[in-house]
Design brief:
The protein is 74% helix and 0% strand. The mean pLDDT is 86.
Length: 154
């Protein structure tokens, strides 16, 4: 019988500890919820006073220093957003440059393939005009190189 008594006692102990733990966790959850509410109220209070600051209302020196910190942080954010825009623009420019180079290589490859096909067929073909400065393929009648901008030599 002593075994069952000890087993019963252990079950009661575990049950009590579980109930205590559940109650403690419930209270901790309520505490965290209440802290979240306090932060929300503080944010509302800050937004209220910020709106007054924006309209030009003056506060005590400490409050004005806090407002100045906010303005400085906003300026910093705007500067970083401008840097992001610049980085994105530079990335797009590099991408466009790579695509143009890829298109140029493809055109040169097709011209070379056509030239090789003509040679195999025994057809005499006029040489493809290229820029004397940068070697870019030129269209017939083109007066300036589309790549380097130099005048086309006849």
């Amino acid at each position: 019988m002593a075994f069952f008594d000890r087993l019963n006692e252990m079950a009661k102990t575990v049950s009590e500890k579980t109930n205590d733990s559940l109650e403690i966790n419930k209270l901790i959850g309520e505490i965290n919820l209440t802290k979240g509410n306090i932060q929300s109220f503080q944010r509302e209070l800050g937004e209220h006073f910020w709106a007054k600051f924006v309209t030009g209302e003056q506060f005590d020196e400490e409050a004005m220093m806090i407002c100045d910190k906010i303005v400085a942080a906003q300026d910093k954010i705007h500067g970083m957003e401008a840097q992001i825009a610049q980085i994105k623009a530079e990335g797009e420019a590099r991408k466009a440059e790579r695509e143009a180079e890829r298109a140029e290589r493809k055109a040169a490859e097709k011209a070379a393939e056509a030239e090789q096909a003509a040679e195999r067929a025994g057809i005499e073909k006029e040489p493809v005009p290229v820029c004397a400065e940068c070697g870019a393929v030129l269209a017939e009648g083109q007066k300036f190189c589309g790549e380097c901008g130099k005048p086309v030599e006849k």
